Amino acid sequence: MTAKRPRRTAERILDVTLAMFNRFGEPNVSTSQLCGELGISPGNLFYHHATRDALVAGLFVRYQGALDQALAVPLPITADIPAEADAEATAPPWWRGKTSEPLTDLIHLAEAIAHVAWTYRFLFRDLSDLVSRHRVLEEGLPPLLRRQAQALTQALRPLPWQAPTPDDATFAIWVGHMLAALTGSTGLDGALDPREHLRQSGPHAVDVALGRALGLLRPALSGPDRTLMDTHLGPGDAFGMDPWWLAPRAG
Q1: H runs (alpha helix) in 39-134
Q2: Can you give the pTM of this predicted structure?
Q3: 92-99: which pairs have CB atoms within 8 A and are 24 or more residues apart?
Q4: HSE-up of residue 45 (Cα within 13 Å, Cβ side)
Q5: Which of 19, 93, 161, 229 is 20 to 30 Å from 82 by CA-CA measure?
Q6: What is the pLDDT of residues 187-201, one digit of tens each?
Q7: Do 25 and 122 form a contact (C-beta atoms < 8 A)?
Q8: What backbone phi and psi angles, to 5 degrees, belong to 161?
């Protein structure tokens, strides 16, 4: 039992670090705050993770593993995100069992990407600043983003498009915007909703990201998929006309 304790402590440190980085942003969390939250000494913290950069690197390894799994087997995972026990968290997705197989595959993939990004959202909170300060991210994130873009492009090709079918240049433009929406890397969420008041839970955040990404494709789709998307994404709610909450808010 004693031999396993260091590993358990190291993993617990990463668990708490992730929670605090996600809540406050990586630059705003000091090692002293981490030690206070963990109830350990700085020496104990640095015994398991020698530097602050090592904490970021450890979380990035976790992110890589989660993303590898998501891209290998993109399955419906929204229900796995911890959330409040409310109707929004437990209701089945609006598209479940109603879309064509290609669109269902795309939604599963996009949902998986959004879920992993939400779980490690501190990475995308101020992406350029974080990457500039951490070599492991500077070297490791671009290949991961390209892999996600490639997976999204492959999933887009078989969708039921209106004529003429979108070309590769159009797919490339869409995929860039889709990936920005799914990861939240634009920074708009942080500016307009810094304390996540509008994103009441993980499932809600993932659903909003999914609506933003799919909304880009809606005008070019055809058939029942287009009809369903018009019904769900057309109204003026958080998933439709104002997906970034840019319209003036009452009160």
Answers
A1: 42-48, 52-72, 87-90, 101-119, 122-125, 127-133
A2: 0.84
A3: 93/207, 94/232, 95/228, 95/232, 98/224, 98/228, 99/224, 99/225, 99/228
A4: 23
A5: 229
A6: 777 777 777 766 667
A7: yes
A8: -90, 150
